[in-house]
Amino acid sequence: MPMIHWVGTRANPAMNQLTDDQSRHLRTLAQHLKPVVMLGSRGLTDAVQAEIERALNDHELVKVKLNAGDREQRSRDVEAICNDSGAALVQRIGNTLSIYRRHPEKPRIALPGDVAGKARRGRRERS
To answer: Are 78 and 89 in contact (CB under 8 A)?
Structure first.
């Protein structure tokens, strides 16, 4: 049975689900991304949260760099980012994390096994 990670908007957290294959696909896509949001010495401020929201709406898959605090503080920041934004933690390596949240109206990233993604690409299921 594949492991499922819950992802979605705050209005409907169960709207999307990520399987292991989808998580693997997102990690592959995130590998070549550069961090778009950086947390500094002030930590997770309202401005940083707003920037994460904007980045998730624009890109769906975002890398965030955590520069300040000790390991426990960074772990709390990661949890707060995911909870506040409704995003799934795709991967965390050192001080960098990748998060994903599907755009509610215009999804840009087609995930493996995603029926809507296959329809957008014009593919049909084979019988």
So the answer is: yes
17 is written with which tokens? 């689900």
Domains, the chain: 5-119 (3.30.110.60)
| Rounded Cα distance, 85 and 53, in Å | 6
Q: What letter does residue 122 receive in the DSSP assignment? A: T
Distance CA 10, CA 84 (A): 8
CB 119 within 8 A of CB 107: no
Separation of alpha carbons 99 and 25, rounded Å: 13
Distance CA 23, CA 65 (A): 19
pLDDT tens per residue, range 82-124:
999 999 999 999 999 999 999 989 999 988 887 655 444 444 4
Spatial separation of the C-alpha atoms in residues 66 and 43, rounded to whole Å = 8
Taking a C-beta distance cutoff of 8 angstroms, is the pair 88, 62 a contact? no
CA distance 94 to 20: 21
Phi, psi torsion values for 13, nearest 5 degrees: -65, -20
